[in-house]
Amino acid sequence: MERLLEGFRRFRDTYWRSHRELFQTLATKGQKPRALVIACSDSRVDPQLIFGTTPGEVFVIRNIANVVPPYAPNAEHHGTSAALEFAVRTLAVEHVIVLGHSHCGGIAALLRGPTPDSGDFVAPWMEIVAPARERALAAAAAKGEPAQRLCEHEGIKISLENLKTFPWLRERLAQGGLKLHGWHFDIEQGDLSQLDSTGTFRPI
């Protein structure tokens, strides 16, 4: 805890102080980010650090394995969907980016399947992108490529598909006011890949 508090003191004395006007503007005029990044909660993958953004530039949703559930307006708890709705309908972001990454623990859990120590929430959450497992294993057998990386890619694709199940997001897409992107960050190499129109991830 002391490390975190010391970090706050440094932030307060350096970054916040030198950007005080920016923070005051954000406090009084609100936020107007142009992009939403749906990223993994993994501590090694910080979207604002990776993309070099300042406060107010991007709206970020983080959860296990950067998963987007399908549209389901029922009485269940929908934290990711609520944040997505706020970003698209209220903030009117122009871009939605699903950002996956290498060595994703959620994807590794999906590939392993449920185990006695899976816990209460991770396995059911990862079932949202369960088809990614079958797609990745089939592709790995055919291409001889690592199933983990292929499954990370397939998980991004399914989340992009699920985004289109939200009617108000589909409407923005049809009007041309919103664009969807699938990106994958390689922690070891520092590389960023983008999903192209052929369904292939290519280096940016």
Describe the structure.
The chain has helices at 2-13, 15-18, 20-29, 47-50, 79-90, 105-112, 122-126, 131-143, 147-163, 167-175, and strands at 35-40, 58-63, 95-101, 179-186, 191-195, 201-203. It is an alpha/beta fold and 204 residues long. The chain folds into two domains: 1-30, no CATH class; 32-203, Carbonic anhydrase (Beta-carbonic Anhydrase, Chain A), CATH 3.40.1050. A six-stranded mixed beta sheet has the order 2-1-3-4-5-6, covered by helices on one side. Helix 8 (131-143) crosses helix 9. The chain is globular and about 55 Å long. The model has no long low-confidence stretch (mean pLDDT 96).
As laid out across the biggest beta sheet, the strand order is 2-1-3-4-5-6
Helices and strands: which structural class?
A: alpha/beta
**Spans of 5+ residues with little confidence (pLDDT < 50)?**
none
- How does the overall form come out from the CA principal axes? globular
Largest sheet: 6 strands, mixed
CATH fold type of the largest domain: Beta-carbonic Anhydrase, Chain A
C-alpha Rg (nearest Å): 18 Å
Mean pLDDT: 96
CATH class of the largest domain: Alpha Beta
Quaternary state of this entry equals single chain
CATH architecture of the largest domain: 3-Layer(aba) Sandwich
What portion of residues is helical? 40-55%
Distance between the termini: 38 Å
Strand content: 15-25%
The figure for the number of domains is 2
> At the fourth CATH level, what is the homologous superfamily of the largest domain?
Carbonic anhydrase
Number of distinct helices: 10
